[in-house]
UniProtKB/TrEMBL annotation, chain B:
Bilayer topology annotation: Multi-pass membrane protein
UniProtKB keywords: Cell membrane, Membrane, Transmembrane, Transmembrane helix
Domain MrpA C-terminal/MbhD: start-end pairs: 13-76
Organism of origin: Marinobacter nauticus (Marinobacter hydrocarbonoclasticus)
Protein's name according to its UniProt entry: MrpA C-terminal/MbhD domain-containing protein
Length: 233, 94
C-alpha cells in the first residue's frame, strides 16, 4: 500500500514536471529574443580572425568561458592522477599484449593522428577545433596504450606536468599579456588574431589530449586486482 | 516526410537505449548501451545542424567516456560478482 502510494506520488511529480517543462518551452519559443545574437555574430565575424562562427565564439568572443573550461579540465586531470594508486602510473607493465590489437593499431594510429591534425586545422573555417582534435589524439593514445606501446611521458614527472598545464598557462599568458598591453583581459590584438587563436588551439589540443589520456592511464591496471584473484583461487 | 521518419526513429532509438542503460542489471550491458546512446546522440546533433557538438559527442561522450566506464565496470565487477564469471574474465584479459 505504501509502495503504491509513493509510486503514484512519483508519477504525479514526473507528470507535473513534464507539463511545466512543456509550458516553458512553448512560452520561450513564442517570445522574441532581446538581443539578436546570430545577427551580431555574422556582423562581427570578420573581426574575430576565423571564418567559423562557433570557433569565433569559443576562442574569441567568449574565450573567458573556454579558459575556465580548460582550468576545470586540468583540475579534473590532476584529481584523477592523485586518486590513482601510485603503483599504477609507475608500473611499466602494459595492459594487454594482444597481437591483433597491436597490428590494428599500426594502421589506425597514424590515420588518427592525421585526423586530429585535420580537425585542429579545420576548426578555423568548418566544424572542428581543439576539443575534437584533442579527443581524437587522446583516443589514439588509448589505443596505443591498450596495444602495449610504452609511453614514458605519462609517468609522473616534468613532462606530464608540463603537458597538463601547457594549454591553460599559454591561454592565461595571452590573456594577461593583452590586459597589460592596454586592451581588455583576453582581447587579442587585432593584427595577431588568427595566429594567436591558432597557437592557443594547438596547445589546447595537446593539453586536452594529455588530460583525457592521463585520466585513462591513471585508472588501476590489471595487476591491481590480481592479488584478490589469487586469494580467491 | 523522410526527415520526419528519420527523426522519429532516432528519438525512439534514443529513448530505448536510455531506458536500456538505466534498467539493465548487467553493468557491462549498460555501458555498451551507453556507448550506443552516445553515437545515436551524435546523429541527433547532426540532425539539429550542430556538427561541432556531434563531433565532440562522438569522440568524448561515446568514445573516451565509454572506455573509462568499461574500465570502471570491469573493476566493479571484480568486487561484486562472485564465482566463475569474474575468474573467466581475468583469464581472458590476463
Amino acid at each position: 500500500m505504501m509502495r503504491f502510494f509513493s509510486v503514484t506520488v512519483l508519477a504525479a511529480a514526473c507528470l507535473a514536471f513534464a507539463g511545466a517543462l512543456m509550458v516553458t518551452v512553448w512560452h520561450i519559443s513564442g517570445t522574441q529574443a532581446p538581443v539578436d545574437l546570430p545577427g551580431l555574430l555574422v556582423e562581427n565575424l570578420e573581426a574575430s580572425g576565423v571564418e567559423h562562427p562557433i570557433t569565433a565564439v569559443l576562442l574569441n568572443f567568449r574565450s573567458y568561458d573556454t579558459l575556465l573550461e580548460i582550468g576545470v579540465l586540468v583540475i579534473a586531470g590532476i584529481a584523477g592522477i592523485s586518486m590513482a594508486k601510485t603503483t599504477s602510473l609507475e608500473d611499466p607493465l602494459l595492459r594487454t599484449s594482444d597481437s591483433l590489437l597491436y597490428a590494428l593499431q599500426r594502421w589506425f594510429v597514424p590515420l588518427m593522428l592525421v585526423l586530429a591534425g585535420y580537425l585542429l586545422w579545420a576548426g578555423s573555417d568548418r566544424p572542428g577545433g581543439a576539443f575534437q582534435a584533442g579527443a581524437v589524439l587522446a583516443a589514439s593514445g588509448v589505443l596505443m596504450r591498450l596495444g602495449g606501446t610504452p609511453m614514458e611521458f605519462l609517468r609522473p614527472g616534468v613532462l606530464l606536468r608540463l603537458g597538463l598545464a601547457l594549454g591553460f598557462s599559454v591561454f592565461l599568458l595571452v590573456a594577461v599579456a593583452s590586459a597589460l598591453a592596454g586592451d581588455a583581459f583576453l582581447a587579442y590584438p587585432k593584427a595577431f588574431n588568427k595566429p594567436l587563436i591558432l597557437v592557443i588551439e594547438t596547445v589546447l589540443t595537446f593539453s586536452i589530449a594529455m588530460v583525457l589520456l592521463a585520466l585513462f592511464v591513471s585508472a588501476p591496471v590489471n595487476d591491481a586486482v590480481e592479488p584478490e584473484e589469487r586469494e580467491r583461487g | 516526410m523522410i526527415d520526419w521518419l528519420v527523426d522519429s526513429i532516432l528519438v525512439l532509438a534514443l529513448l530505448s537505449t536510455a531506458i536500456g542503460v538505466l534498467w539493465s542489471a548487467n553493468l557491462f550491458r549498460a555501458v555498451v548501451m551507453f556507448i550506443a546512446f552516445g553515437l545515436l546522440m551524435a546523429l541527433a546533433w547532426v540532425r539539429l545542424q550542430a556538427p561541432d557538438i556531434a563531433l565532440a559527442e562522438a569522440a568524448i561522450g561515446a568514445g573516451l567516456t565509454g572506455v573509462l566506464l568499461l574500465d570502471a565496470a570491469r573493476h566493479l565487477g571484480y568486487n561484486r560478482r562472485c564465482g566463475g564469471e569474474g575468474n573467466d574474465q581475468g583469464g581472458a584479459s590476463g
